[in-house]
């Protein structure tokens, strides 16, 4: 499983619930089309967290890099309806950071072949 992380802050005046509705619509579109396996939206609680990590955290899970690449290619097409979903979310964000993680150890890692 590959997990694509997105951290972001909202532009001033943007409704937190509207933002979450838009993210859910976008991610459900990708999920229903088989481009991602699942997603999750979380929000910093009680102001706890390092300042360099933003308030909202969205994770997209894919079965493998091929599925993630397919999702990226689809979004990069900039064609509707995916462009409308992307713009509806992106237009509400003021700052964003990304990261890509994987389950570990995963089925790619060969046991006993560790190098020190």
Structure characterization notes:
This protein is of the alpha+beta class and 116 residues long. The chain has a single domain, classed as Alpha-Beta Plaits, CATH 3.30.70. The chain is 33% helix and 28% strand. The protein is built from 3 helices and 4 strands. The mean pLDDT is 93.
Primary descriptors:
Alpha-Beta Plaits, 3 helices, alpha+beta, 4 strands, 116 residues, single chain, 28% strand
Number of strands: 4
Question: What's the architecture in CATH terms?
Answer: 2-Layer Sandwich
Order of helices and strands: EHEEHHE
Q: Which shape, going by the Cα principal axes?
A: globular
Spatial order of strands in the largest sheet: 2-3-1-4
- Summarize the biggest pleated sheet: 4 strands, antiparallel
CATH class: Alpha Beta
Report the sheet-strand fraction: 25-35%
| CATH fold node name | Alpha-Beta Plaits
Uncertain spans: none
Radius of gyration: 16 Å
Structure summarized in a few sentences:
Helix content is 33%, strand content 28%. The chain is α+β, with helices and mostly antiparallel strands and 116 residues long. It has one domain: Alpha-Beta Plaits.
Outline the fold blueprint:
Layout: E1 2-10, H1 16-32, E2 38-43, E3 56-62, H2 65-76, H3 82-90, E4 93-102
Antiparallel strand pairs: 1-3, 1-4, 2-3
Helix pairs in contact: 1-3
């Amino acid at each position: 499983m590959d997990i694509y992380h997105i951290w972001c802050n909202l532009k001033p005046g943007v409704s937190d619930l509207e933002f979450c509705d838009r993210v859910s619509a976008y991610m459900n579109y990708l999920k229903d089309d088989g481009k991602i396996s699942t997603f999750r939206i979380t929000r910093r609680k009680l102001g706890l967290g390092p300042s360099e990590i933003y308030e909202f955290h969205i994770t997209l899970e894919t079965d493998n890099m091929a599925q993630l690449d397919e999702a990226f290619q689809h979004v990069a097409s900039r064609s509707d309806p995916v462009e409308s979903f992307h713009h509806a979310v992106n237009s509400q964000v003021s700052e964003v950071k990304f990261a890509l993680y994987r389950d570990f150890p995963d089925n790619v890692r060969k046991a006993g072949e560790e190098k020190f």
